[in-house]
Amino acid sequence: MPNKRQFRTDTKRGRYRIKNPETGILVFECHFFASFANCVILKMTSPSEKANCVGWYFESKSIVEVQRNFHTKFNKPPPSRNSILSWHKKFLETGSVLDKPRSGRPSTSDSDVERIRETFTRSPTKSTRQASIELGVARSSIRDVLHKRLHFKPYKMQLVQQLKPSDLSIRFNFAVDMLHRIDVDIDFLQRIIFTDEATFHVSGHVNKHNTRIWGSENPHFIIETVRDSPKVNVWCG
């Protein structure tokens, strides 16, 4: 960090500055001297530092005096002329050096959250698109409420074999009989053949539900299939 004398005379010895094009705030400064170059990466100016700059400018009406006081108190390169004038103007207009709150989409109200809860508690299979139409709430807001505030999760529907009331007793009797046979004959399970069957398409059809392609980006991988292609059923035991 250059001392006071170096800082006052650096404009004569050479200085390289980089400013943020949007805010005009100095973000990089390099001082070139006869024997060395001192480069400093500047941090964002805090609200208290901005307030000090505005106060000093009210007292002295001098940018140079403000920069000198800033460097003396905070021991780092001072803000640019444009930054100091911008903070001063903002203080005159708003009474504060803080940035105005950025505009954005308003958060979902508690009443809307409760309406969404009641809707999906009553109809768990309702789509977010249909709920958006019925409730008059943006679909993206409904998804955010379900995930982040209600902690609901989407679950896939499972297809299972239908069981009749009589099937329960049949399964129970089968399990009891198998346990009895195993107790009587320890090698009973070794003589049982388990079977299964599968369907193979001659065209090389792939079940997309069992296939995943991992990567940092979507490869948009597609496979063309032939409708009603020949297939072979294989039974194995």
Overview of the molecule:
The chain is an alpha+beta fold and about 240 residues long. It has 3 domains: about 35-95; about 110-150; about 165-235, no CATH class. About 45% of the residues lie in helices and about 10% in strands. The protein is built from 8 helices and 5 strands. The chain has helices at about 5-15, 45-60, 65-75, 80-95, 110-120, 130-135, 140-150, 165-185, and strands at about 15-20, 25-30, 35-40, 195-200, 230-235. The N and C termini lie far apart (about 80 Å).
Number of helices: 8
The backbone outline, from C-alpha atoms, is elongated
How many beta-strand runs?
5
Unreliable sequence segments: 1-13, 31-42
Mean pLDDT over the residues: 76
Helix fraction, binned, reads: 40-55%
Estimated radius of gyration: 37 Å
Run of helices and strands: HEEEHHHHHHHEE
Distance from first to last alpha carbon: 82 Å
- Portion in beta strands: 5-15%
Structural class: alpha+beta
Biggest pleated-sheet summary? 3 strands, antiparallel
Tell me the number of structural domains: 3
Strand order of the largest sheet: 1-2-3
